[in-house]
Amino acid sequence: YQRRVLFFFFFFFQAEDGIRDAQESRGLGDVYKRQVSTQSTGKQAIAISLPSMPRRGNTVKDVPADQFIKKCADFLKRQPKFQVPKWADLVKTGHFKELAPYSEDWFYVRAASIARKIYLRPGCGIGALRHWYGGAHRRGTRSTKHATASGAVIRNALKQLEAQGLVEEHPDGGRQITSKGRSELDRIAGSIELEGVEGLC
């Protein structure tokens, strides 16, 4: 019986050696290396066969603020329904300012800046906008104090942006960008080239 068992094991090892290839094996390490090389080759084939994905267009978050506001102000200036208030050349942007804006197109610039602010921060209201556009109030020998910007300018700019269909009321208060406004602002941002902008390309 012991001879039969030994003969069976001897036949099993002989058959296993016959199944293997003629390449000399160097143990489990050689087998592992062959498996890794096979998997890496398969991954390379998959990576080469994948199609190249189209590049995503620039959005308002990807372009510099000054260039976008300038482009958006030009866009608002070309809209026939966008009306500038009659008192735009007489008022200041805040009571802490000494003079009125020098530029004749300052209302378009302020409206474009407000549209960008609402795009980046949905739900912001007039109070937050007044704080952002405020500045330092110089009070002579007393310490400088922060003062808010004019609320009438911001309310009129929001009214005109809502008339264009770019801004709407937020369900939780404040304002938010509409789907039309988002597409228009992203289209304006996509027309800005980022090749010559330092730090963005």
What does this protein structure show overall?
This protein is mainly alpha-helical. The chain contains 7 helices and 4 strands; from the N terminus they run αααααββαββα. A hairpin with a 7-residue loop joins strand 1 and strand 2. The longest helix is centred in the first third of the chain and has 22 residues. It is globular.
Structure summary:
The protein has helices spanning 2-19, 28-49, 65-77, 106-120, 126-132, 151-163, 179-190; strands at 135-137, 145-147, 167-169, 175-177. It has 201 residues and is mainly alpha-helical.
Order of helices and strands: HHHHHEEHEEH
Share of helix, binned: 40-55%
Unreliable spans are 1-22, 38-50
Number of helices: 7
Using the alpha-carbon principal axes, give the shape: globular
Computed Rg: 34 Å
Q: What is the number of E strands?
A: 4
Strand line-up of the largest beta sheet:
1-2
Largest sheet: 2 strands, antiparallel
Structural class: mainly alpha
Terminal CA distance reads 81 Å
Per DSSP, what share of the residues sits in E-state strands of 2 or more residues? 5-15%
Q: How much is the average pLDDT?
A: 79
Keywords:
201 residues; mainly alpha; two-stranded antiparallel ribbon; 7 helices; 4 strands; 6% strand; disordered N terminus
Layout: helices, strands, pairs:
Elements: H1 2-19, H2 28-49, H3 65-77, H4 106-120, H5 126-132, E1 135-137, E2 145-147, H6 151-163, E3 167-169, E4 175-177, H7 179-190
Helix pairs in contact: 3-4, 4-6
